[in-house]
Amino acid sequence: MTVEVADYTEIEAEFDQYVGRINYATMVTVDSRNRPRTRVLIPVWEKVDGAPLGWLATYHTPVKAAHIARNPHVNFSYWDRRNDSVAVDVVAEWVPDLAVKQHVWDLYERTSPRGAGYPLGQFWKAPDDPELHVMRLAPWRIQVIRGADLRSRIWQSGG
Questions:
Q1: Nearest partner of 135 among 53, 70, 77, judged by Cα
Q2: Residue 11 CB: number of other CB atoms within 10 A?
Q3: Where is the Pyridoxamine 5'-phosphate oxidase N-terminal domain (predicted)?
Q4: pLDDT higher at 154 or 2
Q5: How far is 60 from 133, CA to CA, in rounded Å?
Q6: Which of 60, 50, 119 is nearest to 93 (CA)?
């Protein structure tokens, strides 16, 4: 059974629990011929003004950059052996601002939500490393599914 919820706080605890435990998400973009492309990445999430907001520290690869430039609608999918899952539909945008990169660096370092993230120093020297790129992930729909009974709850943004 699927239930739509009006307020993100109704799914926030479950979202944080599953994302924090699973950590790795499959990111889906589409190419110029509308063919999907997936890659496994680790975004981090926070709550800003009552709504979820995600960030992805990543490399600015030609394929990923072209896909986002053509169609910024992206999906992140989390799943574990318990059959707990989270699907997050977002609008993605590159953010080159150093203050934002520092903020995202800190979110990854402390893990956000708890358990999600890793020390970015494994791949980049510091927030001002020219190879570090940050993507802002503005969710417009989140679905959490509890594997034990397949209870599904969906939140959608008002915008």
A1: 53
A2: 20
A3: 12-143
A4: 154
A5: 6
A6: 60
Q: How far apart are CA 154 and CA 52, in angstroms?
A: 13
The 10s digit of each residue's pLDDT in 11-69 is 999 999 999 999 999 999 999 999 999 999 999 999 999 999 999 999 999 999 999 99
Cβ partners under 8 Å of residue 59, min gap 6: 131, 133
Q: For the chain, list the domains and their CATH numbers.
A: 2-156 (2.30.110.10)
Query: Under a CB-based contact definition with an 8 Å cutoff, are residues 113 and 19 in contact?
Result: yes
CA distance readout (Å), 17 to 64, 89, 135: 28, 18, 23
- DSSP of 60-106, one letter per residue? --HHHHHHHHH--EEEEEEE-TT--EEEEEEEEEE---HHHHHHHHH
- Are the C-beta atoms of 88 and 28 separated by less than 8 Å? no
Q: What is the distance between the alpha carbons of residues 45 and 146, in angstroms, rounded to a whole number?
A: 20
Cα gap 35→58, rounded to integer Å:
22
